[in-house]
Amino acid sequence: MSVPMLLTPLEPQSPDDHMQNCAALVDGASINYGTGNELEPQPGSSAACKPTLREFNVRLEAPLAADERLGLTGDVKALGEWQLSRSVALESLDDLNWQATVPMQSCRQLEYRFFVYVEDLSGYKQIRRWETHFKPRSLGPCSELQCSQLDVFGITSDNSDLKPQVHRGWLNNEVILQLKFNGEKMFQVHDIETFDPQHVQLKIVPVEQTAGLHVEYTKQEYGKSKLEQQPTFGVPYTKNDIVIFHITLPLEKMMQQHFRLECYSMSNELLGSANLVSSDLTGSEGLLHLPIKSAKDADETLARLRLPYVSVQPYRYSPLDFKNTFAHYWPKSWPNLDVGHRGNGKSYIANAPPERENTIASFLSAHEHHADMIELDVHLTADGVPVIYHDFGLRTAPPGKQISRPEQLEYVLIKDINYSLLKRLRIFSVIAGQVVEYPSHNAEPRTEHRIFPTLVEVLEQLPKSLGIDVEIKWPQRRQGGGSEAEQTIDKNFFADKVLHQVIEKGCGRPIIFSSFDADMCTMLRFKQNIFPVMFLTQGETKKWQPFQDLRTRTFMAAVNNAQAFELAGTAPHAEDFLGDNAPEMLQKAKDLGQIAVIWGDDCNSKERVQYFTRIGATATCYDRSDLFMPQGKQEAFFKSPALMAEFAAQCRI
């Protein structure tokens, strides 16, 4: 299954037709008003509710870039009702001070946020940075003809440490292209004396300049991985460095933009270059084969570059807004959480739990034993249905065929099967060399025990107080060659399908996304602003072959990638934390404001659950909540009415 790469830009939204009635208390009187016209008192309103001017003044800690502007939005019509397309532009008074004067009702209590944006040639705004405090700014009624307010961008009364709470925005009418130097063998060199890939500086240069086009890079190193502007003569690069060029451009320019990759020596001499046309970037991801041509002789090829890329498109369903965000919400006051791996644990093994893994029954079992969250695995079927199952495929056999040996079984991939057929398939596992058959979805009379529940069914049937780690399954290429599985579904299409269901059906509960695929994590981060995202990694392990992407190889590489793209943190493998330096490693992640949810077979005992709590894991994901839950735990953490009220704010409908 595939979809076209281009999406139609979102049209600026028109105001809502319906009235949203609110109430304010002024001088002891209850005043009802609507947002249809905030300058006209509503029927039954007090005389104290009259037209006034609200003056918003905000000071920056550093000047904006030449093309950047400051915007304002809030929960009233005059401030755009949290919508980017209807936000208010502030005027610059000087390099650091900005101002906007907005007419509205004097009795109006309001919430608002500031953000930095650029505007493309079509008038669409791109959110560069925005205030991401859990609670927006708020103002009470104003009894004067004109009221003035002074704020500092990124800092509110909730900032006890006076550090700005500001993050990058999400995509609306722009696209992100990433060109990734994240492998071991990027260059094939013809003459090492002429072009040495171990000592080179790389720079991406747009051939055509246009509003809304922005090139940044990350060279991933602990504490220094944030995206930044390119140096004049490029980014120093040598083998095993991780350098990713992060390009933002208007969606409508996606098929028209040309770039040049320039290669400089360490003494800043231009050695050669390669041309790149954005129309060559077919699909959501791929591999470019670029000849590096000599700067002295255009007919001479210095080297050939194998350059992976990923294209991140905007979320294709309803536009999101500034109202609130949980993408960075994980308070330090929360305890170490217990996460049920695939529910109550793996089931296609000896001594399995009574409930099959990744079924509603297994999730509910973990919940009954006080798990705070469960982890589940999401695939997309051939007809685009998000379903829950761990492996990329399954062992099956035709109806009626007698099976006694493993080699008689067929292996089929979920991505190649329509959901209606998937529910009918026979299901087998091989345990200690023996073939075991399990009931198919349709053959299981107990609905909660049925294999392959849909994501929607899970979101609708699990209690809201049970958090969910939604792992997006995407096959990885291995260091030694080959892939975990074939994948032909478009990555943006896959991500949007899952996001749509989670946003529509999963709001109001603790949810976090995770994936072993670093690019899927990037997509989930920049397509939406509601839910946090973790980079799931196997790290340095003796259990499996390493993946090709260098970002997956170590815990610190994962931490650096999370910092680069503002992920909530990582979900590292337990094997990385069995040594004496484990607390120090986890502290390094915490020092960058990141969470670390530890998973793996090495978590599967009461002693190990206690150990990972003691060394500072944010949460521990393990099998058998019924056996290994910490002694004395009486209730899951999220069974708190106050916490549930906070998460209810996720819901847009």
UniProtKB/TrEMBL annotation:
<feature type="domain" description="CBM20">
    <location>
        <begin position="46"/>
        <end position="155"/>
    </location>
</feature>
<dbReference type="InterPro" id="IPR017946">
    <property type="entry name" value="PLC-like_Pdiesterase_TIM-brl"/>
</dbReference>
<protein>
    <recommendedName>
        <fullName>Glycerophosphocholine phosphodiesterase GPCPD1</fullName>
    </recommendedName>
</protein>
<dbReference type="Pfam" id="PF03009">
    <property type="entry name" value="GDPD"/>
</dbReference>
<dbReference type="Pfam" id="PF00686">
    <property type="entry name" value="CBM_20"/>
</dbReference>
<comment type="similarity">
    <text>Belongs to the glycerophosphoryl diester phosphodiesterase family.</text>
</comment>
<dbReference type="InterPro" id="IPR030395">
    <property type="entry name" value="GP_PDE_dom"/>
</dbReference>
<dbReference type="InterPro" id="IPR013783">
    <property type="entry name" value="Ig-like_fold"/>
</dbReference>
<feature type="domain" description="GP-PDE">
    <location>
        <begin position="336"/>
        <end position="632"/>
    </location>
</feature>
<dbReference type="InterPro" id="IPR002044">
    <property type="entry name" value="CBM20"/>
</dbReference>
<dbReference type="InterPro" id="IPR013784">
    <property type="entry name" value="Carb-bd-like_fold"/>
</dbReference>
<dbReference type="InterPro" id="IPR034839">
    <property type="entry name" value="CBM20_GPCPD1"/>
</dbReference>
<keyword id="KW-0378">Hydrolase</keyword>
<dbReference type="InterPro" id="IPR051578">
    <property type="entry name" value="GDPD"/>
</dbReference>
